[in-house]
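Lab notebook, page 48
Experiment: co-folding of the full assembly
Goal: obtain a model of how the components sit together before planning crosslinking
Operator: M.T.
Materials (sequences as entered):
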Amino acid sequence: MGEEKQPRVLVGSPVSSYKKQTIEDYLEGLRNLSYKNKEILLLDNSPDEELFKELKKEPFLKVEKTEHIENVREMVKRDRNTLRERVLNGGFDYFLSLEQDVVPPKNCIETLLSRKKPVCGGVTLNVYQTKKGRESLWELLPATYTWAVPTHKEIGLEKRMSFADIFPSRLTRVKGCGLACVLIHRPVLEKIEFRLMKESPAYDDSLFHHDCDRKGIDVWLDSSVVCRHIISPLQGKAKEEREAEAE
Amino acid sequence: MKQPKVLVGDTVNAGIKPVLGAYLGGLLDLSYRDKEIFLLDNSPEEGSSNIFNGIDKIKVTKTEHLPNGIEMIVRDRNVLRKHVLDNGFDYLLLIGYSQLPPTNVVEKLMEAKKDVVSALCFREVVNKEGNELYVLQQPMIAKSIQKEGKQIQQGFTIDEVFPSRLMKADYCTFGCILLSRKVLEKIEFRHDERNADHLCFCEDLKKNKFELWIDTGVVCKNLNYDRKLFL
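Observation: model returned without errors.
Model output:
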């Protein structure tokens, strides 16, 4: 792919000092991204300015301070819409949503772009409590959803996918895959704004996928792009915790 | 440019019937063209290979069943090794019957341009801590570490194998591994009193100064997940 013809990608996310323990690994992941024609923009909505001052020192990214508000869902949605506007007004072709607790493969953008899909995510794993009762069952699963009734997608009910559902590595159509590591083509953002619903506790990421589904926009998962999810308790710990343990 | 010639295979037996369909389907779906698929059936039952009749793209040879399973598997894997060396193959891709690889596994593993490169395979591990059950996915690769004056194997955690990339390891299984002819010319499959053939093989790689690489973006599905449905 010639550099002059490479699509222009905005990589970004809201960030916060609430997840400060992930920042070092997150920045390393951003720094290592091999794709050339990109800009990185982080929106810091922390209640204080400490993280913002740290991020300002990083020459390879842009950071803006946004107002901290009590309603976290509202704040994240607001910041994600700021990123959406930057894509639309800044002449970007794609938005790579890369959340603060995720470390992607170095060639993540190239691989997801090569799929030529309107919305294409990488895999992030998380720990879910899948059963309650006398014993709790905690399971490491992909943060990815499919249709509970595939023959009648219009019903809209979803179920979490398993390792057996997403592997062997391949491109698979999914109902949703969060916004942890997702490449979104500009025309999708022209049609869909990040939003919340008053009557629902859902975050903007699941409503984004819901809106894609309703507007007939296919969402895909590339399970050859597997990210490290920094804070998942069974997967491992943030770098400083690992180092502290090693000492 | 001429594509390298690849022999794909492993040992099978009648006991794997619950996963056999998916396994064979996975072999037949491989997109790489210049390959031959060769399975060695070491089932105890006479006529077990009849199950493969009609699958003309897969060559199956019945081998003698031995009471010592590991000895039998090593013998059969050496048959595959010899077939590579005697018939001008450039690579051997071993795919264990519990694994379903990506359809482009040959192409992806070749991209690494390494003599030994494995896909990433998992096994499910259930841990109990008090009233809490944890279902984890254990990568089937390990490193060699020094602990209390001894060299021991320590499995990689999920946290260590992702983000997906090409990484080095000291040990892996034969779940899905691409071996160059150069490696097979120097190393025969073997086992010893303490170690299965994959561990001996990894030790022999070190002795012969070959590196073991894992492409953690090439992830197989463990067919035993499905097999649970039959148990």
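Interpretation: The domain at 7-246 of chain A is CATH 3.90.550.10 (Spore Coat Polysaccharide Biosynthesis Protein SpsA; Chain A).
Next step: discuss with group before ordering constructs.
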